[in-house]
Write a structure and sequence with these properties.
Blueprint (H helix, E strand, L loop, with lengths): L1 E10 L2 E11 L4 E5 L6 H8 L7 E6 L2 E2 L5 H4 L2 E4 L11 H11 L4 H14 L15 H13 L5 E5 L7 H18 L2 E5 L3 H7 L2 E6 L2 E7 H5 L5 E8 L4 H8 L6 E5 L2 E7 L5 H10 L4 E7 L3 H9 L6
Parallel strand pairs: 3-8, 3-9, 6-7, 7-8
Antiparallel strand pairs: 1-2, 1-4, 4-5, 9-10, 11-13, 11-14, 12-13
Protein name: ABC transporter ATP-binding protein
Pfam families: ABC_tran, DrrA1-3_C
GO molecular function: ATP binding
């Protein structure tokens, strides 16, 4: 349905996007991961026909959007990272306004707005001003705006940033429903690795403007198939404990997610004895340990050297 071919974008001699290739099949949910500054937002802006690339092409159903941007604009819904709503209007008024922009016929608009309000769970608040909404409600309305014209493809750029867990779960379930029930194609970016694991069929990992890994979840995880991940929970993080772990032979990486620490080592290496000895020497209380196959986040850290939120 969508194909990105050797796409580049240069700003003042700096390549924000450096020859990326990616594709989406109809009905897929595909994740695009990368730390801040990786080039995701620039790539999305080009795919959305908002800015032109320096070179390369974006094709929708085998038609270049550079020559015919309306090819994608007619079938695309966008959920931007920043809230894009009129705060002094009600939820219904926002939907009606954007519906008219999409040239939805007046006779159809009321029905479309009612359907979207039900989908995003805001029927009871439809007459309230958006400025009175919580962050999660605004995010849900933002998604509603993107769905009004029944797009075949929707791009969701970090749609759950800064919201409460209940709203986040509601949004994730909505995305799942759109994909499974309406066969909507979704390109999804997030700072939360578990969201991408839950929603996406395939994943692209981007850093420094390049696609550095791609594949199904299992294919991505297989990058570290010869290694194991040891999760350690402690009562209090101590720098000396972490430094000592990093100095253990065969330890490939130590990453910190307070209050947990993840240690990556080759599968055949047993270092639990070393870990407990270091804990004793540094007066660190270990509350739990778990050995597992490396996760997508472990692979991400391995490839980029940075946490997703960095």
């Amino acid at each position: 349905m969508l194909e990105v071919v050797e796409l580049t974008k240069t700003f003042k001699n700096k390549k924000a996007v450096d020859g990326i290739n990616l594709y989406l099949e109809r009905g897929e949910t595909v994740g695009l991961l990368g730390p801040n500054g990786a080039g995701k937002s620039t790539a999305i802006s080009i795919i959305s026909s908002l800015i032109k690339p320096t070179s390369g092409d974006v094709r929708v159903q085998n038609k270049s959007i550079l020559k015919s941007p309306e090819t994608i604009r007619n079938i695309l819904g966008i959920v931007p990272q920043e809230i894009a709503l009129y705060l002094e209007l009600t939820a219904r008024e926002n939907l009606e306004f954007f519906g008219r922009i999409h040239r939805i016929q007046k006779k159809d608009l009321k029905k479309k707005v009612d359907e979207v309000l039900e989908l995003i769970g805001l029927e009871d608040r439809q007459k309230d001003l958006v400025k009175t909404f919580s962050g999660g409600m605004k995010r849900r309305l933002n998604i509603g705006v993107a769905l009004l014209h029944e797009p075949e493809l929707i791009i969701m750029d970090e749609p759950t940033v800064g919201i409460d867990p209940q709203s986040r779960n509601y949004i994730l379930e909505t995305v799942k429903r759109l994909n499974t029930e309406k066969n909507m194609t979704v390109l999804y970016t997030s700072h939360y690795m578990e969201e991408v694991e839950y929603l996406c069929n395939r994943i692209y990992i981007m850093d420094h403007g390049e696609i550095i890994a791609s594949g199904t979840k299992d294919e991505i995880k297989s990058i570290l198939s010869s290694e194991q991940s040891i999760s350690i929970k402690v009562d209090m993080l101590k720098g000396e404990f972490i430094e000592a772990l990093e100095a253990v032979p065969n330890v490939k990486r130590v990453s910190v997610h307070d209050p947990a620490i993840t240690v990556i080592v080759p599968k055949q290496v047993y270092i639990l004895k070393d870990i407990f000895k270091i804990a004793e020497d540094t007066n660190t209380q270990i509350t739990a340990t778990n050995i597992e196959t490396p996760s997508i986040e472990d692979v991400f850290l391995h490839l980029t050297g940075r946490q997703l939120r960095n």
